[in-house]
User: Fold this.
Amino acid sequence: MYFDDQVKVDIQERLSEMVHPVKLVVFSQSLQFPESEEVTRLLQELVTLDSRLLLEAKNFVIDKEEAERLKVHHIPGVAILRAGVDGGADLDYGIRFFGLPMQYDFGVLIDGIVDVSKGEAGLEAATLEALAALDQPIHLQVFTTPT
Amino acid sequence: MRLAYRFAMASDKITADGVEVTGFPDLARRYRVSSVPKTVVGETAEFVGAQSEATLLQHIQKAAETPLAS
Assistant:
């Protein structure tokens, strides 16, 4: 158990803002990196808190093609997707989390889930206009520690 | 990290990874992560600490104009 009753209530309150279902695709590999399984267990408990949260647990070795398709190059790694409805494709904004999301990072993961669910970036109009002019891929990596 | 995620949502040209770095010492060395949060933009630019939306945009625009080192 990762969450006590009060934390569950707090998480559920935050997730109540969700609009569309969100699919978390988590990659781990128990034989070579047993610690990576902890993220899978954490997310398995998380998705019990809201029916709009879906989880697919993948093996980084067995599901290598899926990991490459989703550009998950490290484990544990989680792709945060807006789940497709009525058999439609999932919407991939290119948002990933690598490592164990605890403390501050867990809050950010929840924020990311809610933002993806809403489909709203919440950026200023001038920023959106500038981003629309980008003509090449840009990869952002934000490194944190669990404090 | 949330801002980076939001930029990824706003543009299909942008992808965003959040990395809890203690589990990835190789990445910490590669990107010289000694303080957090540290943001690496397109392999060519980096900064430490929280940044405003306008500042992150400037870094992205600058990275888009900078060819990758070979």
